[in-house]
Structures are given as C-alpha cells and as structure tokens.
C-alpha cells in the first residue's frame, strides 16, 4: 500500500493516478478513515494516560474519596473498551480500503487503458518469412506428438495439457537453460512451494478471493495455489528486517503457476497461450530504494538475453497505466513474434513495485551503521514462461514438413536438435 500520510498530503496526485489506471477507489474516503483512526487513537491514548494517573491516585485516596475514585475507574475502563472496539473496526475498514489504492505510476509510463496503448521501445531479431503455409502450435503439437490437450481436458478440464516425448524434455531444457543464465548473474536458485497463505498472496497484491480473483483457493484453509513464484519469493521476508549489507538479494524461483483465467477466450487464448497450470522461472529482487530503477533495467536486460539466446524475435513495450496491475510502478513486457497469430504475444514482464508490496508485507532493511529501518523496494521479472516460449519455438522454427529446429542454446539440454513428425501424427 501507499504510505497513508503521503496519501493525505497528496490527495489530488493519488486520485489522478487512480484515474490514469482506470480504477475505482474512494481516496477521500480513505483519508477520512485515516483521520478518524488517528483521532480515535489519540483519544484512547489520552484515556489510558488518565487511567494510569487514576491508578496512582487510588493508592493515596482517603476512605471518603475511594467510592468516587472507584466509580471514575469503572467509567474510564468502559470508555476505553468502547473506543478500542471502535478503533479496531475503523482500523480494519481503513486497511481494507487502503489496500485498494494502487501504487503510483512512473512519470514515463504511457497513460492508457488497453494493450494497444502500450509503447513499443525496440525490436530484436528477424520475423521469419516462410515459403509455405506455416502451421500454428496446436497443429504442430499434434503432428510432432508432443502436446495432448484432449486427454488433459478429460482428466482436468479445459485449458490443461500434457507435454509428452520431446515436449516434456523441452520444458526441462528451458528451465535448466534459464537457471544457468541466472546462476551466472549471481541469483540464488530456488524451487518454491505451490501454496501460500492468503495473507502473503494479498500482501503481494493479488486478490485471493472474490469474483474478480484469478487465484485458486483451498477450501477450509487459508492457503492458495500460487499464480507465480513472485508470491512465494516475495513472502519469504514478511515481517522481517533485512541486514542492509546483504542487499540487493537476487532470487530465481522455479514453480508451477495456477490461474483461473476466468473469461479468457478468443483465438489468441487458444492452446498453450493461456492455461490454468504452467511452469515458470521467476526473478525476484529485494533492494534499496535508490537501486530499484537501475535493477529494473537489469531484469529487462536479462529477459532479453535469455530470449535472444534462443533466437526468438521479440519486441519490448513500456506497459500503459491501465495495464500495470495495482502493485507495479512501471512494467516492461517482452512480446514474441508468433506466426500462428500473425502478431506479437506477451512472453515475459518485469515490474518495479517500489515499496508497495514491502509496506503490505512489512519487509524492511537496516544499515549496519544504524539509523531507522526503511522499507525495501521489491521487483519481479519472468525469466522464462515455458508454454509461451514453446509456442514461439514451434511456430518460428518450423520447417515445411512440420519438423521443428531446436535453438542451438537448448541442444546441450535436450540432446536433440530437431523434433520430427511422428507416423500417423
């Protein structure tokens, strides 16, 4: 969340940011709750001080004074209890409403509502030109016998899939390739839990429950299936103070990701592009506030290095305010060329969330030489999302006969350099 004193002192700025993000938040209502909370807290503190003074005077009260002192003590106790109950209710309402206020937006983030409003920064690689009619990844997956959607739908429902044969090996190769790049960059490597507490999910900025939630929850527990390792990596230091000399912390996590994808339909969501479960390698960084913009550029450069290393043509876009998501201050996306859609499709994003998530989770740092603890800045970036990269590989590196060339960087991990059609495929 944003610092509430900042919100109170910059109401118009915060309201303009909410409008630019096309969200609906009662900012002035939050400020009113903040003022009410502070007033109640001051009154409770004053009454507690009077109770303490009253207890001191009781010790020296004469028999004649004692009945009145007892009555005064009872009245103070009841008044404090009443105000504490009111304060607790106001604090909970304030917390709930304040969590709805999005992070501020970077001054250079393009103002807009939809993907078409994103700003293209640059392109890399050559979009392939075929002398035959190219197939999309669904047709190639069947022809090569590496993906099975039909049996997965029978077992788990729509938008699930089996990777099989060379497809299964391709997933493992992509994960290991990304991890090796990140290890060379100094990242600590993790495999992460697939479940996280609702408090952590909410702290990162996701909505665990409700009609708009994209998160699966486990009934009769406070656990959720994670939609990204950003949740589990970002929750590791909740309510902790990190020694300043250890910053920045660079983590890379491999996880399964689970997303409801409610309402995700249309030709661009078909096949592997938008699914309920997939494997992803995620980057996450805790750093000092003054480091975060530079590290954000580093994460983008790593994403570009990983995908350029695979030879996948892509473009970089600066994400518009309406498509940032509440926690992000600024976000860059990589979009790969996907011949099956004759257009670009998102394959990674990297976000600088400044101290927005840190405030919600209570993650601070303190320098060795002293001073007050400060909130860290937290950043995330997709190193590699397996299904979408498989789409890009299949569709960009296909041959006339339906075979697919494996990027040279992956061959040491796969043990093969081409996937050929299977008989009867």
TrEMBL record:
SUPFAM superfamilies: Class II aaRS and biotin synthetases, tRNA-binding arm. InterPro entries: aa-tRNA-synt_IIb, aa-tRNA-synth_II, aa-tRNA-synth_II/BPL/LPL, Ser-tRNA-ligase_type_1, Ser-tRNA-synth_1_N, SerRS_1_N_sf, SerRS_core, tRNA-bd_arm. Keywords: Aminoacyl-tRNA synthetase, ATP-binding, Coiled coil, Cytoplasm, Ligase, Nucleotide-binding, Protein biosynthesis. GO terms for molecular function: ATP binding; serine-tRNA ligase activity. ATP binds at residues 259-261, 275-278, 346-349. GO terms for cellular component: cytoplasm. Residues 136-407 form the Aminoacyl-transfer RNA synthetases class-II family profile domain. PROSITE patterns: AA_TRNA_LIGASE_II. It is an enzyme of class 6 (ligase). Residues 30-100 form a coiled coil. Gene3D superfamilies: Bira Bifunctional Protein, Domain 2, Serine-tRNA synthetase, tRNA binding domain. It catalyses: tRNA(Sec) + L-serine + ATP = L-seryl-tRNA(Sec) + AMP + diphosphate + H(+); tRNA(Ser) + L-serine + ATP = L-seryl-tRNA(Ser) + AMP + diphosphate + H(+). L-serine binds at residues 228-230, 259, 282, 380, 382. Homodimer. The tRNA molecule binds across the dimer. Consists of two distinct domains, a catalytic core and a N-terminal extension that is involved in tRNA binding. Catalyzes the attachment of serine to tRNA(Ser). Is also able to aminoacylate tRNA(Sec) with serine, to form the misacylated tRNA L-seryl-tRNA(Sec), which will be further converted into selenocysteinyl-tRNA(Sec). Belongs to the class-II aminoacyl-tRNA synthetase family. Type-1 seryl-tRNA synthetase subfamily. This is Serine--tRNA ligase. It comes from Winmispira thermophila (strain ATCC 49972 / DSM 6192 / RI 19.B1) (Spirochaeta thermophila).
């Amino acid at each position: 969340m944003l610092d509430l004193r900042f919100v109170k002192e910059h109401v118009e700025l915060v309201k303009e940011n909410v409008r630019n993000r096309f969200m609906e938040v009662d900012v002035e209502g939050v400020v009113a709750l903040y003022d009410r909370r502070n007033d109640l807290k001051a009154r409770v503190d004053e009454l507690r001080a009077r109770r303490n003074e009253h207890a001191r005077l009781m010790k020296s009260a004469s028999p004649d004074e004692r009945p009145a002192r007892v009555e005064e003590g009872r009245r103070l106790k009841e008044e404090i209890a009443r105000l504490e109950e009111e304060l607790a209710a106001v604090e909970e309402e304030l917390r709930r409403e304040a969590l709805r206020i999005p992070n501020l937006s970077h001054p250079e983030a393009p103002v807009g509502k939809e993907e078409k409003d994103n700003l293209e920064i640059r392109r890399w690689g050559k979009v392939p030109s075929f002398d035959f009619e190219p197939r999309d990844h669904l047709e190639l997956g069947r022809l090569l016998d590496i993906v099975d959607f039909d049996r997965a739908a029978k077992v788990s429902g729509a938008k699930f899939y089996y990777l099989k044969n060379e497809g299964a090996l391709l997933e493992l190769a992509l994960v290991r390739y990304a991890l090796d790049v990140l290890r060379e960059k100094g990242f600590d490597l993790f495999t992460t839990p697939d479940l996280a507490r609702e408090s952590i999910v909410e702290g990162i900025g996701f909505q665990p429950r409700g009609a708009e939630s994209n998160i699966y929850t486990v009934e009769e527990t406070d656990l959720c299936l994670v939609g990204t390792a950003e949740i589990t990596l970002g929750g590791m230091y909740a309510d902790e103070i990190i020694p300043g000399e250890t910053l920045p912390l660079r983590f890379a996590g491999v996880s399964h990701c689970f997303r409801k994808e409610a309402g995700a339909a249309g030709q661009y969501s078909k096949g592997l592009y938008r699914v309920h479960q997939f494997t992803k390698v995620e980057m996450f960084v805790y750093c000092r506030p003054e480091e975060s913009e530079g590290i954000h550029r580093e994460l983008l450069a790593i994403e570009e290095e990983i995908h350029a290393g695979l030879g996948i043509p892509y473009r970089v876009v600066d994400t518009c305010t309406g498509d940032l998501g509440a926690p992000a201050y600024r976000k860059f996306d990589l979009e790969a060329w996907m011949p099956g859609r004759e257009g670009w499709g998102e394959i990674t994003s990297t976000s600088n969330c400044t101290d927005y998530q840190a405030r919600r989770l209570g993650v601070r740092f303190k320098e060795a030489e002293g001073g007050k603890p400060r909130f860290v800045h937290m950043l995330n970036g997709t190193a590699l999302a397996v299904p979408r990269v498989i789409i890009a590989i299949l569709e960009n590196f296909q041959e006339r006969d339906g075979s697919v060339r494996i990027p040279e960087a992956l061959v040491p991990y796969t043990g093969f350099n081409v996937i050929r059609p299977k008989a009867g495929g």
